[in-house]
Specification:
The complex is a heterodimer.
Chain A lengths: L1 E5 L9 H11 L10 E5 L4 E5 L8 H5 L5 E3 L6 E3 L9 H5 L6 E2 L5 E2 L9 H4 L6 E5 L3 H6 L1
Antiparallel strand pairs in A: 1-8, 2-3, 4-5, 6-7
Chain B lengths: L6 E6 L4 E6 L2 H7 L2 H12 L13 E4 L13 E6 L6 E6 L3 H7 L5 E4 L6 E6 L2 E6 L8 H12 L5 E4 L2 H4 L7 E2 L5 E2 L4 H7 L2 E7 L9 H16 L2 H9 L3 H8 L21 H7 L1 E5 L9 E5 L9 E2 L4 H8 L7 H14 L3 H16 L18 H13 L3 H5 L2 H9 L9 E2 L2 E2 L9 H9 L12 H4 L3 E2 L2 E2 L8 H15 L14 H12 L5 H21 L11 H4 L15 H15 L9 H6 L15
Chain lengths: 143, 619
């Protein structure tokens, strides 16, 4: 199981993650088209990366009336099947972190972790974004 | 497809209208963006001799064709005619504002006229609205940003605004581009104030799309690699610009007590180590920048405890620190933040305050003028008082709000001997008396006393030029270095580059970024020609405004008063030295001895027959 984690103490607020993401997701550089966001607070003392954490209990998936969203058993990544998606927007309303938006074609769009090699992590020079692998308790005790 | 959005937004505040102007291909080809666009448009649209604070002047926000992409560390500039100098002025800003102009669908914003009442401009993805600023007029820059976000119900909008100093048209008022990022120099904020324009607020979601996306991506990776491997860049990441305090102090370049000296006994109180100890918490970067020279934190102890502040960068640490004899960086941080809030350029403010304190010492300003306060070097209260009074333009402040050049003229009494400026722009924090190349760079910088148009100190202090060691105190050869650097940086200011990233990213890489973004071939030779064209275009503007060789000069403090002590004791740049430097520089430039480009030079640059490329839309 893998997911993204963002660290407010390391994020410089440069937004390179959003630029790299939007270029892949939307075919051009534009942070508001990215699948993650950065909230800056208190005169940039805090920059809070907001990412899809590939929820264990994904509200987006449960709220989809067309079963277009699924969670990979192997990786844990929550994926949208664009063929099945009707663009009804239920999932967009359901996600409290606003991690889903419409793509250029009017379909729901979210972080797919770039098939395991996220571009946002690649361009995060301060290493505020990390691709994290979740271990089960037995795996921790075994190590 | 190319990374250009294809149009400029033209706003006429007098008429209350806006329109889109398609980019002329000749503008794109010959001037590229940023400074280039600004130089040509200012020349085309302004009548000669127009009052910078009249509705005739225009205020432009100019990104470049790489701004808003993943190309590392790109910015934007404000271009206008300066009320401080009367010259062309370009003032560069980081943050996220320039990128948002592009996401709104524009390659630049041109603002003409003046609103009849306090207003702000709200540009929402191509929808333009001139809104009342009645509720925010008078607020400081921090409160202005907060209130606008609240009013629009969105924390993610990007704001450029003025503070009270801009509203009152202080000649060195700045435009704040959200949190310690400013179009700081040459009084751009006063121009905005003269237009009754409190803020420009943006929200955009249009994509910027390079012509050759895979080629562009590869070149971005190359640029990231070059930055990661460069030692100077590593220093900016670790210590920010205050790392230069120690260097400047050792080399006697650090302005101290209104540039009387070049080193300061309290320098250790201002440097990176002091700042880290007193308040740094974390690195902060402008949009798309992997360097992150910003260092935000909270002051830990003392009477400024709890103050949130960004790094006190080198220029203000010097101009408001050592130049005013103040050695406690916490006090300097407080004063610089006050400048930001009031909307004053901290560099000019430091220069003006230094001038005022020296004038007080010499009896030209007295306690009658200051409400009983004795102005002293090394006294934060003196500086605090001066900043307040300048921003409010009350009493003495009204005189000082005009900048040191005009203040010295009005104060008289020989005060021009210690008014440290070039063409009216208060000098930056690099005292040039022991580095004549830097003196030449200051004397010939297009917007007045500026270190960012060429910084030959890097070569003069232990550096090489064309494979040979540069003699620090020599005059010969400095003209070539200065002209070359000015051309190169003017070219990169079309993109719009960050000064610091340019230490790490190679010229060929910048060319490759540009060509893959715009889909036209670029090489270093063509880039240098572009820079030279722009430098000459700006020169044509300044010549048209009446500037001559006589204004390519240095203040008396640098020409008449030798450094008083230390390893470079006795050094200065005499007027004879300056003449020699200028003769060589003009010759290298292909300018005649009066500093005017020859017909041949203009022809080589394609400027001899260049028509006006931009016209104001009919109202």
């Amino acid at each position: 199981m893998i997911y993204l984690r963002g660290e407010f103490d390391l994020c410089t607020g440069c937004g390179a993650c959003q630029l790299a993401c939007s270029n892949r997701a939307a075919g051009g550089y534009s942070p508001r088209l990215a699948r993650l966001t950065v909230l800056s607070e208190n005169e940039n003392l805090v920059n809070r990366p907001l990412v899809c954490t590939q929820c264990e209990n994904p509200f987006c998936m449960h709220s989809c009336p067309f079963d277009a969203i699924s969670k990979s058993e192997k990786s844990g990544v929550v994926l949208i099947d664009k063929e099945t998606c009707t663009g009804c927007g239920n999932c967009i309303t359901a996600c409290p972190d606003n991690m889903i938006r419409f793509d250029n074609g009017g379909k729901a769009d979210k972080c797919d972790l770039c098939e395991g090699e996220p571009l946002c992590v690649k361009y995060c020079v301060p290493k505020a974004l990390k691709l994290v692998k979740k271990l089960e308790v037995r795996e921790v005790t075994a190590s | 497809m190319s990374s250009y959005m294809g149009k400029l937004l033209y706003v006429d505040l007098s008429a209350g209208t806006s329109s889109e102007m398609t980019l002329d291909p000749r503008l794109v080809e010959n001037f590229v963006g940023g400074k280039g666009f600004g130089a040509k448009i200012l020349y085309d649209l302004l009548p000669a001799g127009c009052d910078p604070l009249s509705p005739q002047n225009i205020l432009m926000f100019m990104p470049g064709p790489l701004t808003g992409t993943l190309a590392p560390a790109m910015r934007g500039c404000v271009v206008t005619k300066s009320p401080l100098t009367g010259t062309f002025a370009d003032s560069y800003f980081g943050g996220h504002f320039a990128q948002e102009i592009r996401f709104c669908g524009y390659d630049g914003i041109v603002i003409a006229g003046a609103a009849s009442r306090p207003s702000y401009l709200w540009i929402d993805d191509g929808k333009v609205e001139i809104r009342s600023a009645a509720g925010i007029w008078g607020l400081d820059t921090f409160a202005t940003v907060d209130r606008i976000r609240e009013e629009l119900g969105d924390l993610s909008v990007k704001t450029a605004c003025i503070g009270p100093a801009g509203e009152k048209m202080v000649s060195f008022a700045l435009i704040n581009c959200e949190f310690n990022r400013h179009a700081g120099r040459a009084g751009t904020g006063a121009v905005m104030g003269s237009k009754n324009l409190k803020a420009v607020v943006l929200r955009g979601s249009k994509p910027v799309i390079p012509a050759d996306a895979p080629g562009f991506s590869d070149t971005v990776d190359q640029a990231y690699k070059e930055l990661a491997e460069d030692e100077t860049i590593a220093s900016f990441t670790a210590d920010g610009t205050p790392a230069s305090i120690d260097f400047a102090n050792e080399e006697q370049l650090l302005p101290t007590n209104n540039y009387f000296d070049g080193s300061f006994e309290g320098a250790a109180g201002l440097n990176a180590e002091a700042q880290r100890k007193d308040f740094w918490l974390r690195n902060v970067a402008c949009a798309g920048c992997p360097i992150a020279c910003g260092k935000v934190g909270i002051i830990k102890r003392g009477r400024r405890k709890g103050l949130v502040t960004d790094v006190v960068e080198y220029e203000t640490a010097s101009m408001i620190g050592s130049n005013l004899g103040i050695s406690d960086v916490r006090e300097v941080a407080y004063l610089v933040k006050k400048c930001d809030a009031l909307g004053l350029d901290g560099m000019s403010a430091g220069g003006v305050a230094g001038f005022a304190i020296e004038a007080f010492q010499k009896g030209l300003i007295t306690a009658v003028d200051t409400g009983g306060l004795e102005l002293k070097f090394g006294d934060a209260a003196s500086a605090d008082y001066l900043l307040e009074t300048i921003a409010s333009r009350e009493g003495l402040g009204d005189l000082l709000a005009k900048g040191v050049k005009v203040a010295a003229q009005e104060l008289d009494g020989g005060s021009d001997a210690f008014a440290v400026h070039v063409k009216g722009l208060e000098s930056p924090a690099w005292g040039p008396r022991s580095v004549p190349g830097m003196g030449l760079a200051l004397a010939t910088a297009d917007r007045g006393g500026c270190h960012q148009r060429a910084f030959p100190i890097l070569y003069e202090v232990g550096g090489e030029w064309n494979g040979e060691e540069v003699n620090r105190s020599a005059l010969n050869g400095k003209g070539e270095i200065v002209a070359h650097l000015q051309n190169y940086l003017a070219a990169l200011d079309t993109l719009v580059k960050c000064d610091f990233a340019a230490y790490g990213i190679k010229d060929s890489t910048y060319c490759r970024l540009l060509e893959t973004a715009v889909g036209k071939e670029w090489n270093v030779e063509k880039l240098m020609l572009l820079g030279e064209r722009i430098w000459n275009q700006v020169r044509l503007f300044n010549l048209r405004e009446g500037f001559t060789r006589a204004e390519d000069t240095l203040p008396k403090r640098f020409t008449e008063e030798p450094l008083p002590e230390g390893p470079f004791e006795g050094q200065r740049i005499t007027l004879q030295d300056l003449d020699q430097l200028l003769d060589e520089y003009y010759a290298v430039r292909g300018w005649d001895s009066s500093g005017k480009p020859t017909d041949q030079k203009l022809k080589t640059l394609g400027l001899d027959q260049m028509p006006a490329l931009v016209q104001a839309p009919a109202p």
